[in-house]
Amino acid sequence: MFGYRSASPKVRLTTDRMVVRLVHERDAHRLADYYAENRTFLKPWEPVRDESHCYPSGWQARLGMITEMQKQGSAYYFILLDPEEQEVRGVANFSNVLRGSFHACFLGYSLGEKWQGQGLMFEALQSAMRYMLRQQRMHRIMANYMPHNQRSGALLTRLGFEREGYAKDYLLIDGQWQDHVLTAYTNKEWLPPR
Length: 194
Hints:
This protein is of the alpha+beta class. It contains five helices and eight strands; from the N terminus they run ββαααβββαβαββ. The longest helix has 17 residues, at 56-72.
């Protein structure tokens, strides 16, 4: 079909301490385990999740939709795994990918509680962003965070994101409309797709 890619991209990036790769349908158990283990920890930072987020059956349906979006090039959902690819340490999602005269997307991410404070998300996002900028030819990657999430703000600053604004009642997080600081990373060396 015009505008659609024929197969889901196979992307597997390695960093010093992790494998960062696109999800596929066989990841249902791993993702269910990650969200079940970190449910309480992630609750203040995420939308309200239904029970299916902690069960492989819920992830099977979700991964089918994600695989389709990855085929279309409209989203890229990465999981951060240990070097043996057994345990999910976190996730990084590039969603709402637009091309044309925009070439931009939104970045969302989370890291499991036991992996906090070790620089793993910085390491993973450097690699995943490099892929999005070079292979997917993104000009802008936008990421927003709640003002009281200083850790996320510091991570984005360290990655080179610049503050662009402030949005009142921007996202429904943990059942409450939350303000967000708006940031973006702009690729200064952007080249048009071949």
